[in-house]
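Continued from yesterday's entry.
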Amino acid sequence: MSADYDIDSIKDLDGISHIQLRPNMYTDTGTELGCHHIAQEVLDNCGDEAIGGYCSKIIVELESENVVSISDNGRGIPVKANQDGISGVELVLTKDKAGGKFDHNAYKVSGGLHGVGITVTNALSSWLEATVKRDGGEWFIRLENGRTVEKIKQIGTCGPRTHGTKIRFSPNPKYYERAKFRVQQLRQQAMDKAILIPGLEVVFKAPGLEDETFCFKNGLSEFMTSRMEESPMFEFSGQLGDMEKVHWFFASFAETTPIYTRSYVNTVPTPRGGTHEKGFESGLLKAVREYIDMRPELKKLLGKKTRIAASDIMTNSQLGLSVYIQDISFEGQTKQKLTSSEATKFVGGVINDSAALWLNRDAEISDSWMKLIIERATTRTAAESGKTKKVDRKSFTGRTPLPGKLLDCRSNDIEDTELYLVEGDSAGGSAKQANDRDLQAIFPLKGKILNCEGVTSTDAANSEAVADLITAIGTGIGENCDIERRRYGKIVVMTDADIDGSHIQTLLFTFFWRQMRPMVEAGRVFIVQPPLYGVTIGKQKHYAQDEEELDGLRAMALAEKKKIEYIRFKGLGEMNPPELKETCMDFENRVLVQVSPEDAQRMDALVTKLMGDDAGQRRDLLMGKEIEEARFLNIPDDQLFDDPSDVTDDLDDLEPRFTPYESGNNAIAPFETVFRELYRSYGLKVVGDRAIPDVRDGLKPVHRRILYAMEKLQLRSNTKTKKSARVVGDVIGKYHPHGDSAVYGAMVRMAQPWAMRYPLVDGQGNFGSIDGDSAAAMRYTEARITPIAEAMLSSDLKDGITPYQPNYDDQDKEPMLLPAPFPWILMNSSTGNPAVGFKTEIPSHNLSELLGACIALCKRRSRTGAGASNRDFALVRKHITAPDFPGGGIITSSEDELEKMYASGYGKMLLRSKWHKEDIGKGMWQIIVTELPYGIEKSPLLIEMGARISDKTIAESRQLPMISDLRDESSAEGIRIVIEPKSRNLDAEQIMLHLFSATNLQVTIQYATYALEKWMDAPNGDRYRLPSLFSLDDMLNSFLDNREGIVMRRAEVRLAEINKRTNILEGLFVVYPNVMEIVQTIYDNDKPKPILMQKYGFNEEQVIAILELRLAQLRKLDEMKLMNEHAKLLQEKAELELIVDDHAHRWKHITGELKDALARFGDERRTVVDASVAKARTMSKQQTVAREPITAILSRQGWLKGMRSSNVDLKGLKFREGDRLLDAAAGHTTDMLVLIGRKGRAFSMLAADLAGGRGNGEPISKSFVFSINEAPTRMVMIRDDSEYLVVTTAGHAFRAMGESMLSANKKGKAFINFPSGSKLLCIREINPAHDAFAFIDSDGRMGVIAKDEFPLIAKGKGVTAITMKKGSKGLRDAAPVTIKDGVRVGTEKRATSIDEDELKEVYLIPRAKAPRGLPMAAVNGVVV
């Protein structure tokens, strides 16, 4: 490089030199496009001539592999010289930025950009020859290496109409890697011009091949159609525009088809697409989305979480797109990709408008295509939710889309890494401090994940918790699950060793089996079982997996005479990180079990039965013999079951085979076994220990523990309240080791008088409201028990009377039952749904009725000396009417329905609000609702009702158009909801019946008396309880049996106390007369006890009491008191012995207790039972709108509207340009408008729903779905309860009820079967007085036929009314008539009357006979 830099260093290159110096700036010099680009430049010039209409033929000839000749019969390049003496041909070929396309005079649209196109062809060719014919001469010029070697010269003559240009050239190998033409590529370039310019003839010639001529009269559409092998599902084509225009052809196929796209701009191929293709996709996408939004059924199918993308539409499609625009820009001179931003908006707008119209042309085809698109979108969304990029470890810079709570490991070696799925943040905190940071990742689960049985991959991915799990694991789900994309070698499930832990494991395993089965089948899923107890013996630390291991450690400690201490781990969060590491995360010590299915079919059946919708299957599993007699399966498949997929059959002969978690590190457990045992464990625990009440005291464990904790805190009804947080803390700390929110939620409900018929907790502060407001936090509220709850916590709450059990950590004890003095199971509504088949729904009842029934049963037992009897049910039903709800209401079930429900323990009833009509003067009125059904929150109910007044997207039967306003005027005095009708002419009763049908002002109350009572012992030593269904008398008898046991135990405990006390008193009675001697004996002897026992005959208890006696108590007055006490005790003892020994006396005593409770707590019923009330039903639309005259107007272009008048000037109506009236029908807003299609389908809508009459109305396709051949052409207003005469022009007729023409389906219904060549003549209403039909044909003949000769049918062709002459144009008119009134035939201005006699004599004919001629004055008339 020279160091000199002066003026000589600066080069001023002309266009040719610059192109040759930097060819890559202007063309593609590689092997893919190469020299074909400079041939395309010449072809584009020819195409521009054809676009302008100046060229009809182009010839492309490949003379050799490196010589091409391209000619056209266009105008020819100008040959005249400019002011510099350079001819037009030479100027175009040698000067860049020279051409005729910089304005829009010579070329309106073209592919030229900046005048360098053909100049590049010349510059990069070894030689180029141009021959031009124009102006009567033939001209020639030759250039070599871009420079002119032969100036323009005339070489011949031609006719004045002969013109055109021919360019021959040879690419210069100096600039191209391959300066040779490919036959097929050049052929395609030639054919593209013919495709894009309809009618243009393009001839292609090549050595060794026959000449080919391409010509497509219909252009792009013809070409695209010719290459399709199968018929498309949806086809969309068109051409729009003048100067700037779009020509397109789009076809979508149902089957898998390679995507084929050919796009052009101003005839220039754009193989890399560009903004015009983007515009097409965006326009079509917008039209598709709008179409789906207009179709509720499609919108519902799409769902809220899925959005249509362009790829969903373009899949399996073929697109041809040609765009002509004036100002264009490409990406580079090769013009392979359009970059004009205007093209997106222009093409998108054209396509959107056209596609919207096209989609509505044939809704049936469009709907089918939409469903296919929605299916693709749903599949894509599911796939995207499972997509994971490369295995990157989590960072906090936002570069990895991993869940926020995931603590990732460091290692990128997938096989050695593990992902621990732990239960919640508390366990996650311990696990994150205990894990191996290199190999163990921790993902805390957010609560219980979605049950994935019967759930699609899309729905599963829409769950936030599942979506995070999918992202963390990385394999995707469903059909897109690919274990090669996993982020970890093992997935380890680590949950608490309790009910919730078992449930979470079953949900996780359901997820893995249904959505990530390849991970399970590949052995990538494991369980680690944490210990249940931490045990310290002396100074040694041990762990116990279950009660059995704990008993073994206890025995060891006893044998070694060492102190033993243990703690029960409620959850992983209670374990210190070192403990968790040692037991669950240490590679050497942990017990890791790999789950692997033995039989996929059997596993499928097991998951379906245990996690599916059929709760009965789960109930059968828990109640089956296999719970007691076998835990695992070990027999040949052919001996297993008749149905190899049945997993709940009797398992009497099966032997245990595998016990999970007992086989050491990394054992393999059958997935079926693990899943089955997990579910059994969860099911038995949740049923027996959490969700189901005990029939004897009517309480669930959480309620029992809350009351017991409040009793221990001395929170009596007459004491000062204490903070709710104190109560909750004692409950979860001592008895109920679960979340504080669950305990506080139960406590809040116990204090709500609208939720509990007899509240148990007296709350101080905000304990929520019937409006659905939440209670204040537990740190703010205070509470104590109510008097009725205090009665349950009586003196019977002590050992020997009430059974107790150790609490969860054996540090305290809690009552197994409370000594309920009432049948609490029926007093307060009790619900429990453990989701294993035992759903409890026991509504509240009136205490007075319940105690009355119990007293009657007690009297019968006392009288007969027997226990429960089969006659108890009838006795009980005399006292118990029906459930009695806290908020009152009206039960509408019949006595028989209630009887059956109470006898079986299962059923349902209807409960509706109480209301009345209130007059407000001037003929106006309003509805007042004063009581709501049980369980309905007031504010949400009113909000929902308010939305239904105006929201038209809600199902029609759920809308409330008859209401104008809704107000809440409730106060402390009670509920007052005001409902104002839209019109005072409406019926209040009908409105309320509609509200009962459409809203929660009426609800269905379920009744299922599943409750716990007896314990069952399994052969393996386990004890469990399963619920049973109780009839009404069974529940009361269970309560009474329990009450008898309490009374007996109370008497026995009290007798023991009395015997002990009387024994002591009898010893003291000996002391008083011998007091000085006894005192002296005690004073003189170190061991006076045996001396006193021998001398005075005292027993052990008496001597101890005497020795502990104070001398001050030996006064004479005290002796008198003791004697009175002794007498009373003996009297009480006699009473208690009668209670214990005498059956009748015992039940009289219990009767007395119940009567005392009745006197203290009895009250009146709140809920009314009335089976005579009308059933709920919806109001028809006709009942909800005001009756006004209306005229329906239908235009020829399919626009429909309604004008609120019966006298519309049809001639004066204005329509859109080019549109006019097709049909009109007058009626009332309460009528139904029926539209009859070309093929006889009937479409119907309420006349009041017609679009307003001031504008153009709405397209009929917006209201109905039909094909072009079925478009409605006729209209009629009808009433559903009226009868109509239906007549076709071919002379067929039948009778039909109005309701037979109506259909809620937007696709209408088949109604008239038109004979060939006929159409609808009329549909006329038949009045009760009409007894015949008059028919007039086009020949002026009339026949009157009796009405009864025509069938009353719902649809069809009808029967022949009259026979017509050959060649007749058909019927002219038909109408129902009354024979005795005669008929008038003619026009409105002039008509002829035919009386009854003449009708009968001349015109009354049998059906299907020839009619009679009319008088000359009426021969051209109709029935007036």
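--- second protein ---
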Amino acid sequence: MVPRCYIPAPSRQRVTSVLLILFGLLLVMPAASTLGSSATFCCLAPSCGAILADHGWLTRHHSTCASYRQFQQEQLAMHQQRSMSGTIQVPTVRERLSAKRKAPPGLSERKNRQRLHSPLTDLNLQPHLPGPSIQTPQPSNHDPIPPPPPEPSHAVQMPDDTTDSGRPKRATRLPARFQDFVPDVAPIEEVSVSTLPRVTLIVRNRFKTLMTSVFGLWREYLYRPSYDPDSLIEDADLAGNFAPNPLVGIPSESTVPKAQRVGTNATATLLMDWKNNGNVTKSDGEINSLVRDVILDPAFNADELVGFDASRANKQVDEDGKTSFPFMKDFKTTTVDIQIPTGVKRAPPVTLAVPGLYFRNLIDVIKAAFTDPLSQHFHLSPFKLFRKLHGHDTEAIRVYSELYNTDAFIAEHDHIQRHGLLPPNNPECKREKIIAALMFWSDSTHLTNFGTAKLWPIYMLFGNLSKYIGGKPSIGAEHHIAYIPSLPDSIQDRIKSIFTKWNTQKASVLAHCRRELIHAVWRHLLDDEFLYHYRYGIVVTCADGVERRVYPRIFTYSADYPEKVLLATIRENGECPCPRCLTPKSELHLMGQIQDLVNRGSNLIRQYLSSKIAKARRFIYVFGLGVRSSKVEKELKATSSVPTVNAFIDRLGHDFPLHRMLVVDFMHEFELGVWKSLFTHLIRLLYAMPDGPSLVAELDSRYRQVPRFGIDTIRRFATNASEMKKLSARDFEDLLQCAIPVFEGLFSLPTTSEHDLRILKLLYRLAEWHGYAKLRMHTDHTLNHLDMLTSQLGTLMRDFQQTTCTAFRTRELPREARHRHDQALASGSKTSSSTPKSKAFNLNTYKWHSLGDYVQSIRLFGPTDIYSTQIGESLHRLLKRMYMLTNKNGHERQLAQRYMRVARARAAARAHRARQPQHFHLVRSGLSDPLGMVSLRVHHHTSWARRSPIDIPRFVGTQDPAMKDFYPKLQDHILGRLQHREFDGDDHHDFTDADRNTVYVLNNALYATRTLRINYTTYDVRRDYNTVNPLTTPFVMMRAPDGTTHPYWYCKIIGIFHARAYRSLSTGTTPPVSMEIMWVRWMGVVPECPGDLEAAQLPQVGFVPEDDPYAFGFLDPAHIIRASHLIPRFAGGRTNDLLSTRKPTAARSFDETDDWKSYYVDIFADRDMLMRYVGGGVGHLDCGTSSFDSVPPHAEPGPTLPTVTLLQPPAGNATNAEGSDLDLEDINETDVAVDDGDDEVTEIDMENESDEPEFYYDEDYGVGSEEEEEIENGSDCDSQLDNNDLDIHAYSY
């Protein structure tokens, strides 16, 4: 456990005292110097004799004294003469720089503590930061950390120069090893700076942290933080199964509320907490939770449930929750008043009360959030994040990953520190000033698939919390603020009786009322209490027991375009449809051009026109003019403004950045906007070509043949992708990532070949832009590249519109024509026809124009996943689940009540966990996984069950061409690994038959398993994994040797084995060694198509022909980087030339009789894959090691990582050191030890953690589990994702 790092912040009183002392010294020193008995500052020239009052006057005198200049020349001439005569030795510049300097006091102890804290101590990396250099002491005999071993050369010779048969050994060629360091959170340590800080009345106390991270990351704080919440992050928290430990490092005097109790009945409390966990389905996970968290709890007593009534218990839970969590107050309900114009001159407007607003006080929500145990993860002091690689002379680059390390947060925090007001009743408050970064989401949603029930919720999250925590709905970091009411159905009858021009202005009046409603709601939320605390801050006792003054600030508001225009008080699709700038609608297609950049500049930034809006409202409410009358349009139409007073401007002031708050919406603007529009038009183009329906059918067939990748990275496509039925944003994302192989060749007719190349290049740049815009961690380099891509994409899209689109007469798709016809019939039209009409490709849309705002938004507020509307969409799930439990009558009230029960139950669970003893060794995964405790640190793992061995002689005794030379190649592979040779494709020409005959596999048995999990560090310094399966995900990638044209090697996994091998030498038999072995079919890069980022071409690979002696081979899984997504090149077709047999073979799937000629490497499968090909990923550094393999003596030095070892050797019928027989079946599968690099090995008892799954034996793929089979078939993927489980496979020893 990493201890909390408390850093004391300087108090204002202490700073004031220091300033007074300094000013006093400045006043006293001149007087003291003149009152002294003798002057101490004299001119150095003997012939001058001038006496000065202080050193400053002496310096000025030397600059004008002729005697001093003559004295200097004489001294210089004397020095040169002595040097030439050899009397004095003048050191060179290099000698002076390399001379030993005395280390600063305490530096050695600080470095030792840092090394002992970091698991990567053997790297011996020295921080390199810009600014004053830091001299470190040279290692001595007393240094506790030994120097690192010398790095291996590119030609490593084995210690023994000859083989067992007497032949000389060759020097093996080392391939490049991929870099995959495990993320490690280091405590904040300040860089010692020799220069004195500037003393001002406003002390910023800026400092930089040491570059303790192996990834070269360091921080620059403008103000010293009171503590670092990242020091609380554990290794398991760096993956997708984050379950924050609520009180690591919190002092004992912390004010964490106690868990709620239903009266005095602990059993009823357990049961009601389980009921109010937010889940409503009777899944296996929920049943497991019921048994584990309720029935098996020591406090559970069935006798206490006699006479239990759920309705009565719910009421008691509500009452206890109000006492235990005083800041978590219930929803309130009220009516919202809006002003309805009458359309009559001088007639006062009519106030219409809209009932049904359910809301929570914003100040109460902020107080509850900062007192919750989850607030220990809040970042209270923003910082700039930089990266500088060790040993590189390049400048440090800026990194953007969270809201709290962006320019907007830093600027606002600095403003609060310098100009934050204090309340009049406490002007001398010394509490720390911090910001509550508010981020809002709102979106109207349907609660059922059928029916009219809907809800319009407003959610709020805190930007102080990491997106990896707050972005998970299961964490419960979101806060429901309000449920916006809809205009009642009866309002039309009421307005019709009020407004005299209803028949002609019905649509405009209703639109005006909707705008008035949402701003009336926000005017109610931003009440006087909020404004007071917005100005003077809120005094909150945080979860660590420290009182701070919290200033709420609104940073972002995420919504789709129809809601954006309501919040921005502009007209939807008007003359200037953008809510952030005033670019005319006629120029929206120019996105990426210089003119577009000028339009987004300062001259056309949208401003709130308060005077014109006030004038327009006078026309409507005083003079009785229409909402869209000519005088109103004259004032507002040019800027697409509307006559509604904006609540944010009205309450927070005219300097509030309203239009900057409305951030980009990647999901709706790009995935469901630009890309969906382009994909739809590409289908229209296919229909417009000769034999169009056949081409569309071919496109659907190709999409069906695209293999899935990962659990949910690339899913199976629908039967007819061209129909686009019920597709979500993630489905359109998959369509784009796999589009190039699918569309290739469909436009390659003799007269349209140029269009095919143009479309493929456009799809490449579109997928590249998509990947960069969706990165979770940006740097200055990636943002510059994204800016360049935006300009290129604009050029390519306009070229596509002006050339390819004009070459075809495109019409509506059949589904579009049917939809238009159905809508016309529903509206009462009798002249509508279902015949497809002409349809052109349109770029004059806001969604296309918004792509130019992404770089600026990322620099201001961080990566797009922080404020994506996808977060709001995911939060709808809880409301939809709870709606199923209501009686459907007045569901808003029931949902508000049920949400508060869920929120309090989650808070109670966090408080309950805070008081429990922390067992950090426990597996936090969904399935029984003995490797789960260290699964983040090992490179790979798989099942080591040996219940059903595969006999090697029988296994290879078939006519399968994949079995050719199976056993000799296996011996070569094992022998190379036993001799610790670096892998070079098992090209061991120096091995003889005599060498091979010394290699034996224990019991002649291989043990097959179905899956292998590969852990790797992602570009954003997180841990992720791929599951390799010979049937579903068989392709993997590894680093290619240095000097090759392509950076990676590829192969297809045929089988996953493990075995125990040993050597029988003349000197004796070596102990058996366990090793995992991948049986692979090698692939090679197509020479003509190695992939070109500049030319927008994907890499192509193909199988090595069977006549090559290395078409099949074996691979150590330690060399695998991760799984690779290879898509067949459908335009190239299939062939039998690579493997001539048409009979069943292990090299192919059971339903295949030939092979694809080549495959495309899908570098756009996910963002991590993209960054591995384009470079710049912060987390892509070094390779990891398996938990079962020791690092070979000649391997590159790697990080010191914990490993998993059995308390007994896992030998099947082997012999231990004492000579006794061991059998794997006798090993207790619940006894596992964690080896953390120390001398002691701690035993961990994992019994009662989870039931062991039943294993089965598959004749083709060996041992597996029922849970493995279920997940591989995709039947349980959603439940695994919902439970945030990291480990998806069961393992047994």
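The two ends are 28 Å apart (CA to CA). The first helix runs from residue 12 to 35. Will compare against the first tomorrow.
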